[in-house]
Design a protein that fits this description.
The chain folds into 2 domains: 100 residues, Immunoglobulin-like, CATH 2.60.40; 71 residues, Lipocalin. It is 9% helix and 47% strand. It contains 1 helix and 16 strands. The strands form 2 sheets. Strands 1, 2, 3, 4, 5, 6, 7 and 8 form an 8-stranded mixed β-sheet that branches. The protein has an 8-stranded antiparallel beta barrel with strand order 9-10-11-12-13-14-15-16. The protein is globular. Keywords: Lipoprotein, Membrane, Palmitate, Signal.
Length: 218
């Protein structure tokens, strides 16, 4: 009798554990889609399409780049991101962006906003808008008693600090304006800014008048 009770208890425990064991989640290994331009749009020669798969983070931080695809820009534009490892349970944090640039890095077309990726659809359509030419402007900031100059030219920015110069590119940001390169990260909103250089602690900055005492020195 005791043996039967023990056997039944073990069987019940096994059935309970089997029912509670999480099932393996299907992992996505690729994402495909197409990029659309306005009907009247034409592409310049020697341009490239760049598609970025990102994972969103905090509002004032740059999204983490999971994959990047570069290919010649030609109509019609289709793309395929492969060798991915995406968990459908985390799809709320995945997004796609795209832009078209010259070989020199000048932006011509870009996504108006990032396109969320949903588990129901692994084929995405990204619509690009033309990047309007802009007159370069120069802004000045004070970062821990040190002068910083930021020259903005379209989607590119040149950051000058002490004897160092960094070329940054504007990236998507849920709040404020965000520029980034491999060596520097600069986020600004209103009169406040945050500067992060590789290997150095984060620095908080404040905007200075356009006529800056560092203008001539820079």
């Amino acid at each position: 009798m005791n043996f039967l009770r023990i056997a039944c208890a073990l069987l019940a425990a096994w059935l309970w554990l089997s029912g509670c064991t999480p099932q393996a989640t299907e992992v996505w290994h690729q994402v495909s889609g197409q990029v659309q331009l306005p009907d009247e749009a034409t592409l310049q020669a020697d341009t490239q399409l760049v598609v970025l798969l990102e994972e969103r983070s905090e509002a004032h931080k740059a999204p983490a780049r999971l994959a990047e695809l570069r290919q010649q820009a030609q109509l019609p534009m289709h793309f395929l991101l492969q060798n991915l490892h995406l968990n459908p349970t985390a799809f709320a944090s995945y997004q796609l962006r795209a832009h078209i640039e010259t070989r020199g890095g000048r932006l011509l077309w870009r996504s108006a906003q990032a396109q969320p990726l949903t588990p129901e659809n692994a084929s995405v359509t990204l619509t690009l808008n033309a990047v309007a030419p802009q007159t370069p402007i120069t802004l000045f900031f004070k970062c821990d008693d040190e002068g910083l100059r930021l020259r903005i030219d379209g989607e590119q920015a040149t950051l000058s600090l002490a004897e160092h110069t960094y070329l940054l590119t504007r990236i998507a940001s849920a709040s404020g304006t965000h520029y980034q390169s491999e060596a520097a990260d600069f986020w600004t909103k209103g009169d406040e800014a945050v500067l992060t250089l590789v290997g150095q602690p984060q620095r908080h900055c404040s905007a200075e008048p356009l006529v800056s005492p560092w203008a001539e020195a820079a």
